[in-house]
Amino acid sequence: MGNGVNRISLSLERPGHPSYSGHADSPVHACSKNSTSSPVAAEMSSASSSMRDFARAANPFRNWGTWFKASEELVGFRPTVDFLHTISSDNTCLEKYVKTIIGEVMRVLDADRCSIFFVNEVRKEVLCVGSIDLAPFSMPWDKGVVGAVVHQGDMLNLADAHLHRSFDNTVEKQSGYVSKALLCLPIKHVLNMERTIGVIQALNKRSPNGKLDGEFSEQDAVELAKLALVIGDSFYRQRWMALERAVSSSDTQVRSVVAYHGAQSAQQSCSRSSCQGSRLNGGANNFGSLQVDSSWESEDIANAEVASLDFDVLAYSEVRLEQLVPLMLQQAGCSEHCRLADDCVQRWVEAVRLGYYSNPFHNWAHGFSALQMCFYQLRSEEAFSSFSHLDTLGLFIAALSHDIGHPGLTNSFLVNSCDELAMRYNDVSVLENHHASLACQLLQKKETAICSELDQASQKSIRRIMIACILATDMNIHTDLCRKIAACMGSEELNVGHDKQFLMNVCIHTSDLSAQ
């Protein structure tokens, strides 16, 4: 052991040795890290190399059949029914799930503290989603002991965490809680054992006299690996749902730490009525009068030039751009004819803005720029005059949301790296399907359901238009769009009345390209 560090090479105990049984009186042997005469250490020397390889990787998702062939001890591994029910239920919220695991880890290991971390590979962060007395927080995934476990993929057992080269005391300073003994287990991806998707960290072992001066034993490491085996699939599921909610949430803290533990209460309920499918007032160049919000001065609106090719999206702050969106919806007639509630629209726009990551390109400014170009085209081009207010609303929602949650990576990269998104959408328009899904989720949340006063048929139409438009931003269809446009030039092939979706696809595709 160097610098108080022991990288565990685990082995499972044979029948007769204590094991995690899920009962409060389950014994756990204390094992000296420097002694080779302990029962567990002696057993480790006789364990097969394959089992040592398994343990060293702390692989909690090994096939059950393989596990049983390698060790008989799991026959006696009986977690409580309540524990199994809680972690396996689809109805268990993240907060309850995390608290259940933390309580079980602390009980089984006699640990004073336990923290649960999710790994966000896209943002290169580790996210503490559960701890006893700490608010959720995020940090770079190459920082601290947890970061070391994420990258190395090995379990770490530290007699004194401060002596580890990767130890970072930032959290310790903020919380005032001093860490000493530390046991860290990586949780692996269910389909790729080389990827770490989470970490369970136990802190400060209680000694028999109740003091926090103990060290975690080899047996403790075995018990933690067993518990991780049981929670495997549910951990993967909870992490995925949390990351998805984080992107679509309008709460900035939720976005940054993936700690959304419940749905926000709806601020108001809306009655439903149909939206008139009338055309924009008179077609091109006739959006009506711009209604100025009280928070905007008249010179701000005059200088915005939102209906001009001279509009400079980078000249405005994110909040100013956010305030422009309701004004554009008003000028296009969507607010009046589709009965959009002002407060709901404001919450929706804010949620979309917060759903964009701070990428160099695929960010909020790019999303707004695509909307602005759609706004300009509908106001200027006669070809789009056949759009109803419902069509326009669907197009505008799609334009503003078309890159929400963009990770800053390409479809090809996600497919070639077998990313979770690629697996979820079967390698087809991966990012576009992801953006469309997040956009639809926002429209389903009560506080951001701007279409809530439409009847069900109109809402379904909005969703269909929006999804089709967002999928049309996939560059894989660029050549086909260009060919169809070329074929329509100088001919009567294009029936504007029956090809509105094609026109909307062209509008958003060109707007996406113009927002460079």
UniProtKB/TrEMBL annotation:
Active-site positions on this chain: H362 (proton donor)
Binding-site residues, Zn(2+) 2: D403
SUPFAM superfamilies: GAF domain-like, HD-domain/PDEase-like
Xref: Gene3D superfamilies: 3'5'-cyclic nucleotide phosphodiesterase, catalytic domain, 3.30.450.40
Cofactor(s), names only, from the UniProt record: a divalent metal cation
Residue ranges occupied by any PDEase domain in the UniProt entry: 275-516
Similarity comment: Belongs to the cyclic nucleotide phosphodiesterase family.
PANTHER family recorded: CYCLIC NUCLEOTIDE PHOSPHODIESTERASE
Protein name as it appears in the record: Phosphodiesterase
